[in-house]
Design goal:
This protein is mainly α. Helix content is 56%, strand content 11%.
């Protein structure tokens, strides 16, 4: 787990004290921190022998929910960390249950789960902020096999579409799209990805997406120039 720079947090704790104790649970003769890892590291930075905390008996499921949901609410996770947390939760919960516990929409959870199907090097770029979440989400669509090639038998005998599953079919294309600096926003990536899935060569798809981006920017400039001065000031 990465904790980032904890020097500022340590300075605040030294000045004001710990406003919120860490939460831990007993594991055998030891304790596992469930929430408050950065605060714990800040106390280590201050070379303190003691850390104010609360010890509570928690199941694995309860600990997982608490650890992840609070970090997500405080936006302390990167999109990839959030995605990996949701993937862990899928061992115990449905997408609907995860969304409820995290205080997010089901679509939010599904889109993040798509990210863990991307190549590891692309996930790293997303984690460190080289690729925005919006772009990452569109790239992830290429890492999901959405073509319905079979059906599943649901309870009661009814038939339903086969769930989307990971595929490595487009990993080379994903790397090309993620590194092209002319694909400047999520709609550009979405345009190129859709063309690639439709059978268009990736170079041609990128070229079409660039043209589409230029048209959209030109339209925005024209619309902005047509606005009265007071409207431009508001925007």
């Amino acid at each position: 787990m990465e904790y980032g720079d904890i020097t500022e947090l340590a300075a605040n704790i030294k000045k004001l004290g710990l406003l919120s104790p860490i939460l831990a649970r007993p594991i055998g003769e030891r304790y596992e921190i469930v929430h408050g890892h950065r605060r714990f590291m800040a106390f280590k930075h201050l070379k303190s022998k003691y850390v104010p905390g609360v010890v509570k008996e928690l199941t694995d499921k309860q600990a997982l929910i608490i650890h992840g949901s609070e970090n997500i609410q405080r936006e302390e996770f990167s999109p990839i960390e959030t995605a990996r947390y949701y993937k862990l939760c899928r061992k115990f919960f449905s997408v609907k249950e995860i969304a409820k516990e995290a205080g997010k929409g089901e679509t939010h959870v599904k889109y993040h789960l798509y990210l863990v199907n991307l190549p590891d090097d692309i996930q790293t770029k997303i984690h460190i902020g080289e690729i925005s979440y919006g772009k990452a989400r569109e790239l992830a669509r290429l890492a999901i096999e959405t073509t319905v090639t079979a059906v599943t038998i649901k309870k009661g005998g009814s038939r339903g579409p086969k769930p989307a599953s990971p595929t490595t079919q487009y990993f080379d294309e994903i790397r090309i799209l993620s590194s092209d600096k002319d694909l400047r926003d999520a709609p550009s990536i979405a345009k190129a990805a859709k063309l690639v899935k439709g059978g268009v060569e990736v170079e041609d798809a990128v070229d079409e997406a660039r043209k589409d981006y230029a048209k959209r920017m030109s339209k925005k400039r024209s619309e902005r120039e047509a606005l009265p001065p007071e409207e431009i000031a508001r925007n």
